[in-house]
Amino acid sequence: MSDPARAHPRRPLPAAQMTPLDKVRVQLARVWFAGGGGIFLILVVQSLLNVYGDLTQEAWGWFLPTLMPSLGMIITVLTYTALDPLLTGSVVRKSFVSVALWLSILYLLTVSLTILIQPFASKTPAEAVGLMRKSNLWLGPLQGLVASALGVLFVSKEKAN
Amino acid sequence: VFLGFTYNRTKSAPGVPSFTSTGGGGQFVHNFFSLGNSSVFGMAADVGLYNGNFGALHVNSTSINFLFGPRITFFQHSRLHPYIQTLVGGVHTSSNTQITLPAAGLPSQNPGYVTDRTSNQETGFAMTIGGGLDIKINRHLSFRPIGIDYYLTRLDHLRSPIDNAQHNFRYTAGVTFTLGGEKPSPPPPLYKSCPDGSLVSPGVECPHPLPALPWPPPQPSTRTVIPPSAFASAKDFGELSSRLDAALQQSGYVEKSYYSVPGGIGIVTRLERIYSDGRPFGPQSRWQIDDSSLEDRSFMSYVKALFGASEGYYRVIVLIVTGIPFGSSEPSMTPAKADTILARGYNKLPEGVSKQPLPSDYACTALVYEFLREQGKDPAPLLPSRLTARAHLIASGFWTALGMQP
Fold it and tell me: Less Cβ crowding at N or C end of chain A, within 10 Å?
């Protein structure tokens, strides 16, 4: 009988299929801060212009749990590694990076759409906030997937290259 | 009460000569109740006195009758009142005649003869069956040209060997005085009051089929009187409303309702969404009152809606045509109430209203109700409007559609 380990030896992936983790983190952070920051600014302006009337708190109550956990994790990890003068030296598969990146973009677009569609879909502040609440139905599962991907890239223990 | 002339023709029996008696009489009739629409039932009392000579026999006969019975009078509400009656009672007759007898040892101015009068009095049964006609002259006076009765009496001294009854013919004529009676109908009014409170000429149909606009109307944001020159050729409400209708159609107000107001009509347009300068929105969103999100499909409109520019202006125009001056009540108009008013009004002017002539001092007043919906709030009346009513009408296109110069 042949040794299974010998039959399927673990071979390193070609370098072209790998990308440095530090680079991926920065890339994801840019996506998240650009997208999240844009939505944040829109919501701030809307609040200042009293778009939501008496329901401003409800609007922010929807927004903060939607983006802040991911943004908080990203900024925490980046802040922590910012104090380390050495690169992590870790690499990550480009395919997974693509998955994480597109999941993040999809999630941010979905969150943005909830706000940007208001002029078409909602006629009153109550309807706008109602739409936000309703979006949790699909944002919740999507946020779980995105958080898992981001967790792997930002929190998981690094493996040596 | 009847007073008049009486003519009697008495025929006792074969062999007994007929004779005529004349006199006067009176009747008292009291009407008790109606029979049908125009007939009335009453009781009559009849008293008559008449005198005549019994043919060639020179028998002077005087009779007094006293009769009582029912009477039915027809066509009570017309000028001609025919009647029928049956009266039962009695008759008292006093007859006398001069007799001359040969004198036999008695003193006499006419030698050889004695002259004297013999008389007889008797009371017997009497009845009449007949009718007549009264012609009403005025409320208290009527003229009776004819009253004919079969007049039956039973007097022994006039009896024949084969019959103890006298079959008479009675004719009466005279005047009737009515005590009480129907009150004269009041003179026709100059105007008649309609259920909606308006006054119209007696021959004109009431405009009450039109629902009534709340009156006085709620305080508008602004108002103006449209110059009468815009309706110079209009003679009645129909022509004027056609003129208004054409101008409203031309300016896009295809939906409207007609109401009645005291002395005239009111036209209510549908609640529309307008810009702050009074121009209406485009056809796509002009009537979408609940859609405060997008004014149009432009990017700027989208940005405006996204960042809270969903406050909007709304407008209802009410045109009132009446000759009666009016003010306004509390500012109670709301968009919801405007929708209700539009729904309850008529879609066209009834013919009876259209044909009513315009009052000589009529005015067409445009009441503009403007509403402002602030962000997160319900639309509220804008009092006063930022624009004049004329500016509203010009911006809506209605003013120029009427042929008026801006």
Answer: N
